Amino acid sequence: MKTITITAKIKLYPTSVQMVILNKTLSVIRDVLNFVSAFVFGQEGIRYLELDHALYYPVRQQFGLRSQMTQSAFRTVLAKYQSMKSNGHPFSKVSFRNFEYDLVWNRDYSISCQSVSLNTLSGRLHIPFELKGMEHWFCAGGRFGTAKLIRKNRKYYLHIPVTLEVENRNILNHIVGIDLGVNHLAVSFDDEGNTRFFSGRAVKEKRAKTLALRKRLQTCGTKSAKRKLKKLREKETRYVTAVNHAVTKALISQYGAGTLFIIEDLTGIRTITEHVRLKSRYTMVSWAFYQFREMLEYKAALSQSEVLAVDPKYTSQSCPVCGNTTRANRNRKKHEFCCTVCGYRSNDDRTGAINIYHKGCNTLFAEACQA
Ligand SMILES: [Zn+2]
Q: Which of 133, 165, 108 is nearest to 10 (CA)?
């Protein structure tokens, strides 16, 4: 049994009257967040109770916020400062630019078949929504966490964390998403939020070194050139095999028994060209990916673990925070992912691993609900 949490991103369809209320609420909350943030910035290390003591009445009076919303705002601001600190960023003033509002389950929001019910500055609203393929996330047994109401491009979304105990597939310890690539041979992202990078530089450099020689031999075409070329290929194969062995072994020993490894199902050519554009490298790399998967599968089986392959569609283009999916999110040259909507920024291969991890969790949810 394993507890997993995924975020359901549902689209809301408010009426025009409801939109006015939502906009007003989001805009006041953003003002409050920035007001509270300015205060917290001047009081480094302030705790919740002190903050509540200092700002509870001023915020309620000045902004007309309800009691629960005021306290939610304090928590949101403190959490932002805390995450800045734990990510190792220097202490600086946090400003809230986006429209977002944190809602506590059963207090600020609830959900039924037809609508979500939200707490706003003007009381409760019942807004129709669309699930679209996420129905299974709401099957019996899931626990809902603190949701976020988000407005982007004049559309409204509710991001709801859903937690479920998964009993299928014998997972006891870990769930790990793995992104395979060239720059990083593999990047893993696990259920505790840890990322591990397995450099592909050595393989890449080795290949680049022999490229000129390979080209010369290819154009030469004599018998001895062909023999040398074959030798070179064999050498490269041995090298890639050794690296794949080392990386799969490291993953297995890192996570131990009872782990579910999630990888992309690289059956389609499109994904492979997405990873690797150069035609000459295509065969080599796709072969290396298959070998990696095979090795991981048999080693996983030996350690009572499992490998799950998921659809690779958009794993490199989707924002793990807001769900925005576009090619422009990824800068290949800089090896960086930067969301064009919410500004989320990270290493591109790491982002791929996070998306693969989420896809795997989604599959587990679907399986759990069918069972
Ligand atoms: Zn985003």
A: 133
